[in-house]
Amino acid sequence: MEKGLVEQISQIMGDWLPEAASIAVAVGDSYVYFKAGELDLRIHAGDPVPAGSVAELTFKKRGKVEKLVENSPLGFPYYGIGYPVEYAGQAGVLVVILPPNNVLARKPQLRFLTGKLEDNWRPVPIERVTHIESSQKKTWFYSEEEAYSTIHTLKELRYQLPDYFLPVHRSFIVNINYIEEIARDVSSNYVLTMKDGSLLPVSQNYAGSIRERLGF
Question: Which domain of life is it from (predicted)?
Fold first, then answer.
């Protein structure tokens, strides 16, 4: 599969992939082709394939790989889908790179969360969840002043929640409908007061997106 053919395939894939998608092709331990979409990973022909990347995982599995990459070297998350291909008689990988909130990247939205309370499991409608917290290597969600543990990680939940859930900190996701008020603490950082009385910090990394989302 020569470069010209790669470009043709890229154009064909562009007919069904979103405009935001980027496409990368790797052979062995290096990339041979990259077409940037909305997210430019700044990949160039000859660049090495990083350990743990979607491309490397696809090579190892020799099958399709889908992965949400939260900690990319460029500082933004992306969703990668890797496919094994053949390039110039060698085993290669084609990777489709999407923004994490793209419809193709998102899993079906959750309608409820099942949590453990003491020795029992309870399904809780998602709209009744006030906020979700990651603490001491566990994930907790809160509803009607009860705290439930769940098997899901915060990272897994982030892109499966309805759009009225908002990340405010690496350890917290909140339901906007349960925010009572937003204030500043003595360090001028935002603090959320929830309707159940909980006080949740807003990290500097999320302050801008929260102001934009909530319009203040």
Answer: Bacteria
